[in-house]
Every structure is written in C-alpha cells, then in structure tokens.
Automatic annotation (TrEMBL):
InterPro entries the record matches: MetalloPept_cat_dom_sf, Peptidase_M12A
Protein name (database record): Peptidase M12A domain-containing protein
Molecular function as annotated in GO: metal ion binding; metalloendopeptidase activity
Domain Peptidase M12A, residue spans: 49-112
Organism: Nematostella vectensis (Starlet sea anemone)
PANTHER family, per database record: DISCOIDIN, CUB, EGF, LAMININ , AND ZINC METALLOPROTEASE DOMAIN CONTAINING, METALLOENDOPEPTIDASE
Zinc listed as a keyword: yes
Keywords: Hydrolase, Metal-binding, Metalloprotease, Protease, Signal, Zinc
One GO BP: proteolysis
Amino acid sequence: MERLVFLLILCAAAFASIEENRGIEEEEELFEGDMKLTEDQMNELDARAAIYTGKWPGGEVPYELDSSISSQPGAVSAINAAIAEYAQKTCIRLRPKKAGETAYLSIFKGGG
C-alpha cells in the first residue's frame, strides 16, 4: 500500500512539472531557469534599477561614516579605497551625505 501511494505521488509530481511548463518555448529566456517574467519585471531586475526607479537618482548614494570609524585613520583609508574601487567597477557613486539628507548609508563598526 505504501508503495502504491508513493508511486501515485511520484506520477502526480511528474505530470505537474509537465503541465507547469506547457506554453513555454525551449528557447525562451527564463529567469533563474524556471520563471517567465514580463518585460516590466525584467526591467526591474536591470542592474541599474536603483537609478531608474529613483531610489538613488543619478546613481549617487550618500553615506556617512559613524564616529566608531571616522576616528580611525586606517579604517577611513580602507573605506575610501573600497569606495573608489566600487566606483571603477559599477555605475553607483557613493558620496558623503549632505546636511538634511535622510536617505543614506551609515557605515559603522560592528560585528558581522
């Protein structure tokens, strides 16, 4: 009896997989191998979506160094080097936060 139940579950799973993929052409581009996305969804996944959606206009991301780091010259130097390398390899530009800005990255010393 257990084998029969197992066999029925196995058959149901196999047929469900076939049914789910009906209507999807083999050559269609699937996100993560199994999801058919609309053009709008694909646009949201664009590597520069943060710029286009207005979250970080112009690709500029303000940041602030917490006092737990800003008082350590070696740490500040390492962070500045990392920011410069990030700017070379991406379209995102980190810049110091201006007074009054409320949306920014806070870089602080912590575990993890």
